[in-house]
Amino acid sequence: MEAFDVALPALGEAWALILQPVVLGYLFLGVVMGLAVGVFPGLGGIAGLSLLLPFMFGMDPILGLALMIGMVAVVPTSDTFASVLMGIPGSSASQATVLDGFPMAKKGEAARALSAAFASSLFGGLIGASFLTVFILVARPIVLAFGLPEMLMITILGLSMVAVLAGRIPLKGLAAAGLGLMVGTIGEADAGGSLRMATYDIPYLTDGLKLVIVGLGVFAIPEIVSLLRQDRSIAKGSSLGAGWVEGIRDWFANIWLSVRCSIIGVVVGIIPGLGGSVVDWIAYGHTVQTTKDKSNFGKGEVRGVIGPESSNNAKEGGGLVPTLLFGIPGSGSMAIFIGAVALLGSGDIEVGPGMLKSNLDITYSIVWLLALANVLGTVLCIAASGGIAKLTTIRFTYLAPFLFMLISFAAFQSGQNFEDLLALFAIGLIGIFLRRFDWSRPAFLIGFVLSNPVEKFTNQAFQIASFRFRESFERGIDYVFSPIVIVLIIITVVSVILGIRQAKTIMAEGDVQSGSKRAPLVFLLVIAGYLLFALVNANMIPDYNMTDKIIPLVVGGLSLACCSILLIQMMRRPEGDVIFADKEIAGEDADAPYGLWPTLAWFAALITATWFVGFILALVGFLITFLRVRAGCDWIKTLTLTVAGIGFMCLMAGALNRDFPPGILQGAVDLPWPLK
Fold first, then answer.
1. CA dihedral 312, 317, 320, 324 (to 10 degrees)
2. Per-residue pLDDT tens digits for 511-544
3. What predicted TM-score, i.e. pTM, was given to this entire model?
4. How far apart are CA 615 and CA 598, in angstroms?
5. Suppose 173 and one of 222, 443, 514, 638 were both cysteines; which one would form an S-S bond, judging by CB atoms 3.0 to 4.6 Å apart?
């Protein structure tokens, strides 16, 4: 009761702080900036907060918080535009939304998908703010109860969603997840520093691949190439004006799903390091598990939009719990948030227990700002939807070069290396073939996202458990099998059992027809070859660095076993069996007027030209050539669109203080910005 006696006056003081015109004005400005950043795929909250960081020094604390919270709250809402309208994950927290949101847009139901998503996002954001209000008082013992075994089990729970998303051939889903895990282990190991599938002769690989690149490569490149081959609009000319009310009705009809997924978002957001990388997949898996008719998932099931969108906004409230209570960033954007708070005012505000003790009114101001920003962000997104949604009625050939431009820029920002573009192209190829042969792209991405947490928590938990077991068997068992771990194990086992039973009814890539044995068999052999090579590479690590090799050996061995079983099945089954699914046999890809390799060559040409003359000069040539030759535009339209595209890139790079990929020319000649 004493805690509530202290909290209630602070809640009132917080309202008095934020209900000032100037504070609301800064909140509105932050929401508008978050909307602008979130619309463009690959940027997200980290880039947005990085933009604000230089302006935080000495700013009035409540004004600076209003600006930052406005941006943080709206990005998970506005990134829905790219996921639904273009099939490109707007951020790591909106990847699952693509699975059903984009098929709805292609069926002319973009308005319905967006309104359901915005209603879910608003509700999830308010749930997150409400839970944050209570958690500030009671969450400390809950968060402290999560040790390394609990963190490992939460990560394994995320991996268990692979069972749901594996598709008609579960072994393909498991192998895809294993491939994602193995790709995620590329680079320098955290524990002992051993190199895996990397060498210091190629420094880029020692740091591993970035999530932005893998997410864009696996989902964005395949969809852009597919739509460009078909040379039509995304929505096939369907009207997008209707469906707004229907989407809200869909959300209300599934309000308990939204409640459950919002709670999932809050709980996962509380766990530092997971957050947006996995929350939407767990919510999507739960949505599938609790739906009776699962046949429509992956084809345009509105519940597949409501679940993830409810969770990814709610996780912002959960992510603020460890950030505000302990000064532990719940995500990358929260890490920047902590640094920015230290710059506010005279520098006397510091997140953590001290903030709750000395600045409880400011702490609750953050809660109320989060709630208001969600409402304001949803209203602005709905208001802007009409114009943005009309993009789906434009002939895709006009949009494709600018999407190639945006994802190349976003990928480069992840590491500021030209190799980022090469990695994007390589992962894009993997994504194209995973999509073509009906291998689960979500399973691959889940594996990649969770590769680092699985390895880190496993190694650390093993070391501590070994020490406890040396003390006594009872102490070791108590550490490994805490009550929370036991509950999470039960949930994970149930999730896997239900997932395996349900996976055959889920077709994430649609109803893919089967064809001859040759192409699917060759792709399987390529995957198996990589896994075998990675397995041999990991085995070469000295035994004294066992912690660096154990996860790749186990994961690689299991994945290779899955591929071996698949190979035997392919050899024994007749052509036309579901195991030989191939999008090039029948459907949109098979009937497309343009081939895969000529279409992909345009993107390769942009990257190659960038290597020689830098991004901006390469982009000028790429846009002019593409619009004239591929799109068939006249010179006036070509030059107008080219100037608009270059101007937009320069404006965005200047505002975000970002560089463009340089080429050989930039190393030889001192050129002015933006050519350098």
1. 180
2. 677 778 888 899 999 999 999 999 999 888 888 7
3. 0.74
4. 21
5. 443
